[in-house]
Every structure is written in C-alpha cells, then in structure tokens.
Design brief:
Blueprint (H helix, E strand, L loop, with lengths): L2 E6 L4 H17 L4 E6 L7 H13 L3 E5 L13 H11 L1 H12 L3 E8 L5 H7 L4 E5 L3 H16 L11 E2 L7 E2 L13 H12 L5 E4 L7 H8 L12 E3 L18 H12 L6 E5 L8 H14 L2 E6 L19 H4 L4 H4 L4 E5 L4 H5 L4 E6 L3 H10 L3 E3 L6 H11 L5
Pfam families: UDPGT
Family: Belongs to the UDP-glycosyltransferase family.
Pathway: Pigment biosynthesis; anthocyanin biosynthesis
C-alpha cells in the first residue's frame, strides 16, 4: 500500500503556505510519499487561498488538497480572529476523523502533521493509531513560551493583562513584558486562553515538533527547549528546526484584486531606484490600519523625504481589526491625504492590497523593511539580509518584536 503523510494547517494563508512548503520539503527527501493536506472551511477571505492551492495543484501533483465540510460557528460576536479559528477547527474535528479514515482506505498514513491551532486533531490521531507531529509556523521563541505556559499559569493567579509592568522569565527568551504576549493569552478567563492552555498541556504527547526556523537564528532558545527547560514536569518531544521555509516565487496570491500589471509596475519602479534607497512597508495578509493611521503614515513618509514602496489596504470593517472579511482594492485617492500621491510620485510608490514580497525584499533597491513581525515576513527579511523596523499588530508579533530587537539585533 502506498504511504501517505497528512498535513493539517489552520486557515490563515500564511499558515497554509508554510505547511505546503513543508510538504514540498518532505517530498524532496521522500518523493514516493503522497502528501494530503486537510483544508478546514476558512472563516477568512477564501479567494486568495483558492488561487494559491490551484497553483500548487498544477505544479506539485504529489500534493492533494482535501476540503473539509463547511461548519457554522455557534458564536456570532467573535471579534478576535484566533477565537474564530479555534471554533472552526473544533467543529471540524469529526470531519478530520472521517477524512483520515477515507485516506487510510487507500494509503498507509505515516503521520498527521498539525498546526498548533489544530491540536484538537491530536486525539483523533491517537484514536486511529496515527503518529502525530506538530509544525510551528512561528519561531522557536513562540514555542518556548507556549510550552512554558502551563508553568506560568501555575506560578500566578493573575491574568497577564493585569501584570502591566511585570517581566516574565521564560527559558531561552529575553525578559518579556507580560502584556507583550499574544492577545488570546492575556486574559485567563477568556475561552481562547483556556483552549490554548489545554493545547500546551497536550503538546508533550506528540511524536515530534517541527519549527520553521534554523538553529543559527534562534540557537539559545532552541537549546533551552531541547534541554527540557520549557516543560519542567513532562517530556519534551524531539525538536527539528527545518527552516527557513519560504516561498521563493511568491505566488501565494493577494487578498485584493491587484492586476499583474500593477505588480509588474512596482518591480519596474524599483528597477529605476538607487541601490538600497527604498523602504518597504507591508503588514501581512491580515494587518489593517484605520484611515487616521494611514494619514499619519503618509504624512511621515512625505515629511521624511525617504523613498518608499508601501502596500495599502482598506481600513478594518465589521468591528474586526484584521482582514478576515472579503475586501476590495482600496480607493487610494479617498484614503490618503489629498495630493499625497502626486506630491510623492518621484520618491514613492503605493501598491493596492498586495505585492510580491519576496521579489521586493530581495530587490537591490530595497534597504529596509517596516514589518508587522509576522514570522514568514521575518524569515523572508532575514533570508534577504534586510534590516527591519518592527510594528507588531496581532498574534505573536509583539513577542517576535522583542526577540528581533533585544535578542537578534535585527530590528528597531
């Protein structure tokens, strides 16, 4: 019977892209394997993921996508995208069980590799006697905190949001303000916190943990994890640093409808700029700013006299701070200060919604990157040798900023 490996990413496009890159990497070592990727019904903008998966299917026939049935979240007032993701994945658990059974009829499943958001699948793998592994699309710095969370929980009775001036001592990490933890971890009475705490206690049951990083980048924290310092009262699964997994051709697709001509024009514009003269501003697949913030950024760029390439998206709507709803391309004339585009046309270029990030950060004209500190973007900047200005927005990005600035000295 042919052997297969099943991968289970969480819905955000950045997590999906990293999981696909993992599948590609595994195929270079085991080309006889069949890779099956379970796709939970996304609460996020689906169009960009569909486009990306179509490209992968056309170019890597050994990777097969399995779309799980649509589920309907019970809660209607969720405002944090992490909570929405957790609910969708929890409701998808029986569908994961069914799909694994279907795959096992045709293949011998060698393992289930899960995103840490997908920890609910661990019990399914155990029930079906399938070895289970976790794949962290974040860095080892986040894994250290996550593994140490049960210990932190036992050491204090307060929520981290109420420890405003308190620094946490986490093995392998620089001193970390409690309020710099990801939002779902700040309130111990929050349901998302309870879910993640439960996930953290289950991690030691895994057969192994893979991290999208490399030891030279995070050597101190990788050693702390491997030495068992982050799980003082349980086993630490074997840790494998398999990064940097990045998309060399950057064909992941955008959330808006930017045309190929627009994308080509921004690269052509870079071709005409002096070496290392342009600052690139881009804030990930979910990052959004209010109109007032966009005006302030525009004013800062114009007053600086600095050459720039800036990716602008529509402001948040539906009381959501991240882009989990369908968005069209922004009307730049109405969003930005009057006359800004005309006044800065010789020094700057504004792209609507999406730009080919890997091509940009590796372009010789780009000398700096203002980033949200998402881990994929961080790895891409490190790969390109590009210094960063850290502007964290959501998820584990505040934690990443601390490590990038204080530990790695790669960002301001």
């Amino acid at each position: 019977m042919e052997e297969a490996l099943v991968l289970y990413p969480s819905p955000p496009i950045g997590h999906l892209v990293s999981m696909v890159e993992l599948g590609k990497l595994i195929l270079t070592h085991r080309p006889s394997l069949s890779i099956h990727i379970l796709i939970a019904a996304s609460p996020y903008v689906a169009g960009k993921a569909d486009k990306y998966m179509a490209t992968v299917s056309a170019t890597v026939p050994s990777i097969d996508f399995h779309h799980l049935p649509i589920v309907t979240p019970v809660s209607t007032n969720i405002t944090h995208h992490e909570e929405l993701t957790l609910e969708v994945l929890h409701l998808s658990k029986p569908h994961v069980h069914e799909e694994l059974l279907n795959i096992s009829k045709r293949y011998k499943i060698r393992g289930l590799v899960m995103d840490f958001f997908c920890t609910s699948g661990l019990s399914v793998a155990t029930e079906l006697d399938i070895p289970s592994y976790f794949f962290l699309t974040s860095g080892a710095c986040f894994l250290a905190f996550f593994l140490y969370l049960p210990t932190l929980h036992q050491k204090t009775s307060k929520s981290f949001k109420d420890m405003k001036d308190h620094y946490l001592d986490i093995p392998g990490l620089p001193p970390l303000l409690a309020t710099d933890l990801p939002n779902p971890f700040l309130d111990r009475d929050n349901q998302a916190y309870q879910h993640f705490l439960d996930f953290a206690t289950q991690f030691p049951q895994a057969s192994g943990i893979m991290i999208n990083t490399f030891e030279l980048l995070e050597s101190r924290v990788v050693k702390a994890i491997s030495d068992g310092l982050c799980v003082p009262n349980n086993r630490t699964p074997p840790i494998s640093c398999i990064g940097p997994l990045i998309v060399a051709d950057d064909k992941r697709g955008g959330s808006g409808k930017s045309s190929p001509e627009d994308v080509h024009e921004c690269l052509s514009w870079l071709d005409s700029q002096p070496s290392q003269s342009v600052v690139f501003l881009c804030f990930g697949s979910l990052g959004l700013f209010t109109k007032e913030q966009l005006w302030e950024i525009a004013a800062g760029l114009e007053n600086s006299g600095q050459r720039f390439l800036w990716v602008v998206r529509n402001p948040p709507s539906h009381n959501l701070k991240v882009a989990i709803k369908e968005q069209g391309d922004p009307d730049l004339d109405s969003l930005l200060p009057e006359g800004f585009l005309e006044r800065t046309k010789e020094m700057g270029y504004v792209v609507k919604s999406w730009a080919p990030q890997m091509a940009i950060v590796n372009h010789s004209s780009v000398g700096g990157f203002v980033t949200h500190c998402g881990w994929n973007s961080t790895l891409e900047a490190v790969y390109a040798g590009l210094p960063m200005v850290a502007w964290p927005l959501y998820a584990e990005q505040r934690l990443n900023r601390v490590v990038l600035v204080e530990e790695m000295k790669l960002a301001l």
